[in-house]
């Protein structure tokens, strides 16, 4: 297929932001601007900013009309904010980036657009990730299951995609109702969407470290993390007839909760990066 034709597909990039994003958001925006595929629009959505992020974004808008700033009248939460981004978007494909992450592969969008254009049966494409601390220092990196078959065999066990790395077909997600906005999927809305997408099309990860994911803070919130693990069990049961390895995934999910609860009670301090590295490598 002609690469120039591929590049004509507009990509809408959704960047939700709230509270204090000003310290990091320049990285995210700059990494989008640096992409070799220039046919994109960047929708930055303010869901309750409390610092100077809006002023930073408006300076970018003066120089680049592809950047659009949207402001929620009140805090809507991540699920409704993402769906607002989808509704306002004009692209055939949608990508995601968070306000403290950045794309380090300047051909990321180009590769993903070309893949989706050349593989009509695929609905979602992600990449590998480099995990860094707040100062940008690399902590570790990992690739995710690549082929549709590999992903299907593991996706009930854990999410196989990094949110800031993905690109999906807008029309398919709209037909599926977008991100679920219920309390049951809060903080796992991305995982739920990947599972939904896999029921109607193929999934893939490109074997490239295209994204830097920033670990912020000194420790993991036990309330949020344990809550995510429990909601993962709900998703496993919800999609048990759609993917293989249901019982193994369920057992693993319960073990994960027990192990994590035990770690939190240990008389030693586990740092965020150590615990996350262990989780990514083993669970």
TrEMBL record:
InterPro entries: Glyco_trans_2-like, Glycosyltransf_2, Nucleotide-diphossugar_trans. Transmembrane segments: none annotated. SUPFAM superfamilies: Nucleotide-diphospho-sugar transferases. Keywords: Glycosyltransferase, Transferase. One of its GO terms (molecular function) is glycosyltransferase activity. Residues 12-173 form the Glycosyltransferase 2-like domain. The keyword Transferase applies. Belongs to the glycosyltransferase 2 family. This is Glycosyltransferase family 2.
């Amino acid at each position: 297929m002609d690469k120039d034709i591929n590049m004509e597909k507009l990509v809408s990039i959704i960047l939700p932001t709230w509270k204090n994003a000003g310290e990091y958001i320049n990285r995210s925006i700059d990494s989008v601007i640096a992409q070799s595929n220039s046919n994109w629009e960047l929708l930055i959505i303010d869901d309750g900013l409390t610092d100077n992020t809006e002023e930073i974004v408006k300076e970018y808008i003066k120089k680049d009309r592809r950047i659009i700033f949207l402001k929620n009248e009140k805090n809507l939460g991540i699920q409704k904010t993402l769906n607002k981004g989808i509704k306002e978007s004009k692209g055939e494909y949608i990508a995601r980036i968070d306000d403290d992450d950045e794309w380090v592969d300047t051909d990321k969008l180009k590769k993903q657009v070309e893949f989706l254009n050349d593989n009509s049966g695929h609905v979602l494409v992600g990449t590998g990730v480099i995990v860094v601390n707040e100062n940008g220092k690399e902590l570790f990196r990992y690739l995710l299951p690549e082929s549709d078959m590999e992903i299907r065999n593991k996706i009930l066990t854990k999410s196989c995609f990094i949110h800031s790395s993905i690109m999906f077909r807008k029309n398919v997600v709209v037909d599926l109702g977008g991100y679920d906005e219920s309390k049951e999927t809060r903080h796992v809305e991305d995982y739920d969407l990947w599972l939904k997408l896999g029921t109607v099309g193929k999934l893939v990860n490109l074997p490239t470290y295209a994204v830097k994911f920033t670990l912020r803070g000194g420790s993991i919130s036990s309330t949020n993390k344990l809550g995510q693990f429990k909601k993962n069990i709900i998703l496993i049961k919800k999609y048990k007839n759609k993917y293989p390895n249901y019982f193994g995934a369920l057992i693993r999910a319960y073990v994960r909760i027990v192990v994590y609860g035990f770690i939190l009670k240990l008389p030693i301090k586990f740092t965020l990066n150590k615990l996350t590295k262990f989780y990514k490598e083993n669970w």
